[in-house]
Amino acid sequence: MKKGAIVLAMASVLYGAASCSPQPATNAEGEQFEWVVDTFDDIRVLRYQVPGFEKLPLEQKELIYYLSQAALCGRDILFDQNFKYNLAIRRTLEAIYTNYDGDRTVPEWKSFEKYLKKVWFANGIHHHYSNDKFLPEFSESYFDTLLAAVPADLLPEEYGSVEELAATIKPAMFDPSLYAVGVNQAAGADMIRTSAMNYYEGVSQQEAEQFYADMAVAGDPEPVSYGLNSQLVKRNGKIYERVWKVGGMYSPAIEQIVYWLDKAAGVASPAQRETLEALISFYKSGDLAEYDRFNILWVKDTTSTVDFVNGFTETYGDPLGYKGSWEALVNYKDMEATRRTEIISANAQWFENHSPIQDKYKKREVKGISAKVIDAAMLGGDCYPSTPTGINLPNADWIRKEHGSKSVTIQNIFNAYSESNRSTGTTEEFTLRAEDRERIRLYGSLAENIHIALHECLGHGSGQLAPGVKGDELRQYGATLEEARADLFALYYLADPKMIELGLLPNAEASKATYATYISNGLVTQLSRIALGKDVEEAHMRNRKLIAEWAYELGHADNVIEKVTDNGKTYFVVNDFAKLRDIFGHMLREIQRIKSEGDFVAGRDLVERYGVKINPALHAEVIERYSKLDIKPYTGFINPVYVPVMKGGEIVDITCEYPETYTEQMLRYSSEYSFLPSKN
Ligand code: ZN
Hints:
globular, binds zinc ion
């Protein structure tokens, strides 16, 4: 999973800011689904829904259950990978937290609790996103008092005495100059010695680089991911790898992972069993060739309902980019969303034929991409609590080239982001008219999902180039114009009666929710994400501004989009949805022409005129309005609990429940899924 996906998730906070569910989301008891379970510091913690789980056949539920157990067993690995004292610190804090019998409302205790919540969230003492160490907001002497009240046998024992433990973890927690950065990628300094991460011990950057340069085989077309599953250490002058495998480093946790993967293999299809067995073999041997064999089997399996990520995967935690942080994700096919993309793809030719672009630029034969859409069932390791909204794996370039890759959106995580934004007041702040807000409430989320499906399944693949045009003529404007083309295709068809005929949208009102949001976002809301005085740079943001601004101008004579100032606040309101659709069609025709003919000058002029520059007064106003909303920049999730229903020693069903708070879940994970010593 690329961390880029996490950034995308944050973008969606705004883009989907006004999105809501077609019906109020409810749980099994028919109560309103509570999205937000906790907020602290710069973080909010959500729950995600697990739609359709109860309808899955028993073997699929069992598979999810076993894979979920495997997904939770590696949590300690990540803590230790991030920093060598993280486990000792977490356990000490937890021992204090659970044994404290003082007043839990006093400010210092609140600061202590906040710090512990942050440590859980970051899987350590460095911020999950910035990588900077965060400091406690309580004093060292307060910590001493708390520590002194805990019976010694409840504290980590690997440091000998409580005094030794305190002497080890206190400087790490409180001294701002020590272990200040988790992953240092600033050029110049020794990136290993100046980073707190625990992927290397006693080696310099130069020694590590030399070690892996010597290991690589020159010209190998299928190189293994050198160094991915080990800590590199220098002891007694000797440099060697401590491999993460059964019998190696992190063995107690890996043994548990293997135990549950083995259970999963027992209920999997023959093809998926082979995939799981390859992964088990990798965990047992530590052989990176086995890891590649697993990835090739995994990427070939595109049909299983239940799928997973489990292993040492992303290398962002290592400044040199060799070491994989442990992560896990269990997912299953979203039947409803996948059905939508299948309907859209099955009608690809109809859409192409009826597109408002010139006939000569239409594809004679067009095939839609039938994208699989998934829902997360369990997040673990580096996917928990902060998680991406998509998967794009495997990472090995040669496997991607030879065998392909899986690139999928995690629908329920994406939905949780947009649904939960209701509570932030963004829709109220930036949507003037009550009828627009009501349509957004009723149809926003559904119409937005269809918009994305049209954009991805058809929009990018539509149209063809004129003879002799290569496709790279638009140069630095190409990406923005390509996104605009796909978005306009989607916007144009969203309001087509065909959408209702195909059963994708319930009525003609639904598309109006997206139209209103899109215009308002492109012209106003998205400006909050850009620093005052800066231009719009990112291609998707430029595209949205280009479309909204250009449509505003094209419809000016007919007052299609109206700029309204109310109470000193600026709004852009759609007055005529039918005319706006015609304008989108006209714009699509022109942008397709620009792409098909490689008309660089026309493309550049559009982007520069409508997509880049921001009115400074409006920009300042939007930032001011946005800053008053209660929005946390970072989001994470707690997991549901899967409970086997037993009858005569057999699992007859599995239920999915959400009984816990954030703190309860973290404490339970620390007691039930904690397999490693505090010193590894
Ligand atoms: Zn796109």
